[in-house]
Design a protein that fits this description.
Layout: E1 3-5, E2 11-13, H1 16-29, E3 33-36, E4 48-52, E5 55-61, H2 70-81, E6 85-89, H3 92-98
């Protein structure tokens, strides 16, 4: 679980956008090609595509403890049913594990 301290030293979950940015920075440093995944007419596709050495990974980023929406679950299953590697990532540690 990714957490940060707010101005009052209270632990709060990391924002999804911050998690995504940090994971992208890590991936690029490790040789991954990173693309935003947008599919007109298909809502709920994962946030990013990561490609390195023939390996293609789709990642949907979520705030810590947050689950994918119904439409996102449908798209993830659809991709997985076709053999794609799709992950839902709610922590930087998990992103690092996927992208090592």
């Amino acid at each position: 679980m990714s957490i940060v301290l707010d101005d009052e030293d209270v632990l709060v979950p990391e924002l999804e956008s911050e998690l995504e940015k940090d994971a992208i920075d890590f991936a690029k440093k490790h040789g991954w090609l990173v693309m935003k995944f947008v599919s007109p007419g298909k809502r709920g596709v994962p946030d990013r595509i990561f490609i390195r050495e023939g390996r293609v990974v789709f990642i949907e980023f979520k705030r810590s403890g947050e689950l994918p929406r119904v439409q996102q679950k449908k798209r993830i299953k659809e991709l997985q049913d076709h053999g794609a590697n799709v992950y839902v990532c709610d922590s930087l540690d998990y992103a690092y594990l996927i992208l090592r």
